[in-house]
Amino acid sequence: MPALVIRQFGAAADVLGLDCEPMAQVGLGEVRVRILAAPINPADLNWIDGTYGTRPILPATPGTEAVGEVIESNATALTVGTRVIFLSYAHGWQTQRVVRAEELLAVPADLPVSDLAMLKVNPATAWRILHDFVALRPGAVVVQNAANSGVGRCVIQIAHALGLRTINMVRQQALADELRACGADLVCGDDETGKEEALSYLRALGARASLALNAVGGESALRQLDLLEEAATQVTYGAMGRRSLTIPNKFLIFRDIRFRGFWLTHWLARASPSERGETYASLLDLLRQGKLQQPVDSMHPLDSFRQALLRINASDRNGKILFVPTEGTGCGI
Asked: Could you list the active site residues?
């Protein structure tokens, strides 16, 4: 069975290889899933270089999320032909996987494979961080950095659908029109000038932001705090800037700002089946209504993984890179 495998930690281009893995038997309560599509996420690259929140036992196949089809079942809950996404770590950069049925969620087969492949991580992260920390009413303001990231774009679209306003801080102002087309209310630079622009916007509204979403850290995270109302909450869900957040005492003592963290992996492990089902049902509804879209740059078979990795840093990349495993893929490249 063809699979992309790492045998040591390092840059993906240096340590990733295509191997032939043994075909596992389907045990009681398990199903065999044929992988249809699996994206490359930033977390996957961190997982490969050993800097993510958890380290796999090597050798291992990367791929945080994937969509597939059940092709063999020894579980009553899932029948052959059911389309599924992985709720546990997908190890999705391979052609097939044998997995326990409870680690999967059935999804509609009539939605595009690419949308379903990208459903688990970014949309669910955006949905949960907008729902789990502050009771936001329509018209409330949410401020975020890294607004052009995968999660950031999902936050914009979901917030717009919920009737929330968003202040979106970015490093590249050229993205402003693109983000406004997604539903962003204000797009400004992630610098002091951008912060002043955001403050002017808030003064015109006569309000402050109720929730801040931080995926960068460092000075970028601190800039958000001046935009928040008293007793508001900042949620950190990423660390793109690789800079820790050092909180000035004034925000704790005089402003009573609350600081929380979010990791989707923990939420998926702790949430009940009904909570997980309700979250993904809501996201599937938004997909059907055309209110949640994630662009795809390109799709690659497993044996073209080097070309796929090159697209990650391409200056003209527009969207996610997806693997589309096929049974005819060769091994040992």
From this structure: 52
